[in-house]
Specification:
The chain is mainly alpha-helical. Helices cover 61% and strands 0% of the residues.
């Protein structure tokens, strides 16, 4: 199974169990889909950084015990919105 979040935390498979990894991965995928659908265009050289912001927020929240898919996704999107990487479509 593909583990996109493992890129951002090497010990991902040791920190979280299989059920947690499914929840976190789904939240990450939905956050990324929302970021892409939100009308913001990210430069190609910033895409990995955007994904890292989403992933790191989800991982940090999960380490603090959060497991609600929607709260993980929404928190990651708020973290992205607070970053200075956004440039709106013109």
């Amino acid at each position: 199974m593909r583990r996109p979040l493992a890129k951002y935390i090497p010990e991902f498979d040791q920190v979280f169990d299989a059920e947690d990894m499914q929840i976190l991965s789904a939240a990450f995928d939905k956050a990324w889909e929302a970021a892409q659908a939100g009308g913001v265009i990210y430069a190609k050289d910033k895409v990995d950084l955007v994904r890292a912001i989403l992933a790191k927020h989800i991982i940090a929240a999960a380490k603090d015990g959060e497991r609600d898919h929607s709260r993980l996704r929404d928190g990651a999107l708020r973290a992205l919105a607070k970053s200075n990487l956004r440039s709106t479509l013109r």
